[in-house]
Amino acid sequence: MASNTGNYHDRVTIDPNILVGKPVITGTRIPVSLILNLIAHNRTFAQIIEDYPNLTVADIKAALAFAEDHVDRQDVFVRAS
Fold first, then answer.
1. Contact at 8 Å (CB) between 5 and 69?
2. pTM here?
3. Domains of the chain, with CATH numbers?
4. Taking a C-beta distance cutoff of 8 angstroms, is the pair 24, 32 a contact?
């Protein structure tokens, strides 16, 4: 996947007063993790939007970009066997 870093900042919100600070799609209480879970379970963008009509394709792509950015920033420590 091409890097979309930066494309999610206006669409993903982290606020301790909303779902205890879990990342959500801005203006909703829909967590990024829910969108990732739906995609992992083979739901299409169209099916997700049908189930959550206040989401847009751009919101779903922002959730993916957010996840990509945060996974890419994780430090990896290799333990010697």
1. yes
2. 0.82
3. 12-72 (1.10.10.10)
4. yes
